Amino acid sequence: MLKKAAIVYCSPAGSTQQVAQVMERALEDAGVGVLSADLGKGRDGSSIIEAVKNEQVCLFIGSPVYVNRPIPPIMNFISELPDNAAAWAVPFVTWGGVSSGIALYEMGKALTEKGFTLAGAAKVVALHSMMWRCDKPLGEGHPDRGDEKRIRELIDAVLKKTASRRSESISVSDLAYQPDGVHADMEKTTLETAKAHMPGKAVDEGRCTECGVCEEICPVQAITLSPYPEFGRRCICCFQCVRVCPEAAILADLTPVEARIRSRAEQLKEHPLTKIWV
């Protein structure tokens, strides 16, 4: 019987956190002790790393999908995990209805290279993080109760699997579910190359009150005030600073991106929207 689990995630728009919280409640309902860490807002996962080093835990690790991939804080965290880890791991991603990309595959591959055994995995559809201004945004209303039910089913299956020493892990190849040509194309595009095609951000100094909300909310500490917001190279283009600014002082025209998002979703038609692997 699994006695302890660790959940680590980064969730700029809140959807990955929502999934993590459902997992935490399901584990606690089953009598499993849970240690959790949000890697956003400058926090680190050192407590999780120590738990993996010193205790037999199952590691649940979650990321939103940006440009088909997990975001840098999550991959950086995996790189810091101890080698030859004799533990179970469950990667999970949230995605905005366009494509879940190769994020689960890349996370699973990196975890197995560290020695983890994959007890399961999940992709969960969520409101697209760049479409909050839109009518009928992709992923609207998700994660919903149906998605949460699937997450609980994942937890139940993982608990049964970790209780049996003879249970087999899922394979990294199971997570390479995109068609071969699509997978290969996604490997060629990175967040860094995609930034060149993202809308630029500008600050309306007449509106800005230098309140610091944007600096505080940035999940990768890419914003500094001097005295107005400046955006550093670590920016992952989550646009949460635009979304949460109380004065609407950070400006970005997302309209052209919204059209591309819908066109791409129509082209890929990825289904099912939410899926678990066990």
Task: Sum this structure up briefly.
With 278 residues, the chain is an alpha/beta fold. The chain has helices spanning 15-29, 46-54, 72-80, 103-113, 145-163, 180-188, 191-194, 213-217, 240-244, 255-268, and strands at 4-9, 33-38, 58-66, 69-70, 88-95, 117-118, 121-125, 202-203, 223-225, 229-231, 250-251, 275-277.
Please indicate the percent range of residues in DSSP E strands (runs of 2 or more): 15-25%
Structural domain count: 2
Give the class-level CATH name of the largest domain: Alpha Beta
- pLDDT under 50 segments (min length 5)? none
- Binned, the helix content reads 25-40%
Assembly state of the chains shown: single chain
Radius of gyration, CA atoms, in whole angstroms? 19 Å
Return the CATH topology of the largest domain.
Answer: Rossmann fold
Distance between the termini: 17 Å
Name the CATH architecture of the largest domain: 3-Layer(aba) Sandwich
Sheet of most strands: 8 strands, mixed
What number is the mean pLDDT? 94
Global geometry = globular
SSE order, one letter for each helix or strand = EHEHEEHEHEEHHHEHEEHEHE
Query: SS-based structural class?
Result: alpha/beta
Compute the number of strand runs.
Answer: 12
- In DSSP terms (H or I, runs of 4 or more residues), the helix count works out at 10
Write out the CATH superfamily name of the largest domain.
Flavodoxin domain
Describe the protein.
This protein is α/β, with parallel strands linked by helices. It has two domains: 4-177 and 272-277, Rossmann fold; 200-252, Alpha-Beta Plaits (2-Layer Sandwich). The protein contains ten helices and twelve strands. It has helices at residues 15-29, 46-54, 72-80, 103-113, 145-163, 180-188, 191-194, 213-217, 240-244, 255-268; strands spanning 4-9, 33-38, 58-66, 69-70, 88-95, 117-118, 121-125, 202-203, 223-225, 229-231, 250-251, 275-277. The strands form three sheets. Strands 1, 2, 3, 4, 5, 6, 7 and 12 form an eight-stranded mixed beta sheet that branches. Strand 9 (223-225) and strand 10 form a beta hairpin. Helix 1 (15-29) crosses helix 5. It is globular, with a radius of gyration of 19 Å. The two termini are 17 Å apart.
